[in-house]
Amino acid sequence: MLPKFLKPYHIKSSNLVRIGPRTDGGYIIDKRILNKIDILITCGLNDDWEFERSFFKKKPNIKIIAFDHTVNNHFWIKRFKSDVKSLLLLRKLRISKIIDIFKFIDYLLFFTKNKKHQIKKVEFKKKNNKEITIPKILKDYKEVFLKIDIEGDEYKILSDIKKNSKKIAFLIIEFHNLHKNIFKIKKFLEKLDLKIIHIHGNNYGGIDKYGDPNVIELSLLNTKKIKVDNRFSKKKYPKVNLDYKNFKRREDIKIKFNE
User: Fold this and answer.
1) CATH entry, 4-70+119-222, from 3.30.70, 3.40.50, 1.20.59, 1.10.3470
2) Distances (CA, A) of 8 to 75, 202, 224, 227
3) Which of helix, strand or coil describes residue 122?
4) Is 18 helix (H, G, I), strand (E, B) or coil?
5) Could you tell me which of 140, 194, 189 has the C-alpha nearest to residue 170?
6) N or C: which end of the chain has fewer CB within 10 A?
7) Sign of CA dihedral 223, 224, 226, 228
8) So where are the chain's domains?
9) Helices 73-88 + 103-110 axis angle, to 10
10) DSSP 56-70
C-alpha cells in the first residue's frame, strides 16, 4: 500500500479531464486551470508530444516550451534507420509503421512559432550551455503549467521546483523507483501549496513485491490559484473513463493507500 501522503485531495469529477492520448503520455488535469496559465513547460520530450498537441487544441493561444537534450540530430538519424529497418522486416504492411518514419516531419511542423523545443538538459546546477535549471526556465513567467518526465532525474530538481512553486499553477510529474525514493517525495510534498489531485500507476514500470507501482504519475494543483477541499478523495484508482493503461498489453495497476 502507498503512504497516505500520496492520496489525492477531493476534486469534483466534472473538473477532471484527460489531456493527451488514451495510452502512455496522457495525463489528468483540472480543467479550471486552463484559464489561469500562460505557458506550458515540458521537461522530457523523447518522441511523444501528443500531450502538448492536445493541450494546444484546448488552449490555442498557449505558449509551449519543451526541454530535452536527447532529442537531437543523432536521435532522429538513429530513429529513422530503426523505423526503416522495422518496416522492411514486416510481413504485412502497417500504416502505423509508415507514420513512424515521418515522425521527424511531424516534429518540425509542430514545434513552430509559439511552440519551441530546446536541446538542453534540465539540471540542478548549470555546468555548460547545454544545461538549464528550473529557476532559469521559470524566471520570466508567473502562471506556469509544468510537466516533468525525465526518467529518474526528477529527484535532482525537486528542491528547485519547491522553491519556485508560487509560479507553478499546475504540475504533472512522474516519479520513478518509487519506494527507493519515497522519503524524498514526502519531503518535497511537505508544506507545499501544490496538492495532489490525481494519481496513476504507470504499468510500464511494473510493480514491486508489495503490488505497488514502481512509477507513479501525479497531478498537482496550486491551491493558491484554485481552492481545494481539505479532505481526501474516496475514489478508486485507476479511475474509469479517465485513466488508461500506459502499456495496453499489461494490466493497469490498482492503487491502495494506508489509512
Assistant:
1) 3.40.50
2) 37, 16, 17, 14
3) strand
4) strand
5) 194
6) C
7) positive
8) 4-70+119-222, 72-107
9) 140
10) HHH-TT-EEEEE-TT
Q: Report pLDDT for 100.
A: 80
Q: How far is CA 223 from CA 16, 70, 81, 164, in A?
A: 15, 34, 47, 15
Residue with cell 481552492: 227
Three-class SS state of 10 = coil
d(CA 29, CA 65): 19
Question: Per-residue pLDDT tens for 206-226?
Answer: 999 999 999 999 999 999 999
Cα 153 to Cα 44, 122, 123, 181: the distances in Å are: 10, 9, 8, 12
Give me the residues paired with residue 257 across strands: 2
Q: What percent of the chain has pLDDT over 70?
A: 99
If you ran DSSP here, which 8-state letter would residue 85 be given?
H
Read off the amino acid at residue 85.
K
Q: Which residue ranges of the chain lie beneath pLDDT 50? A: none
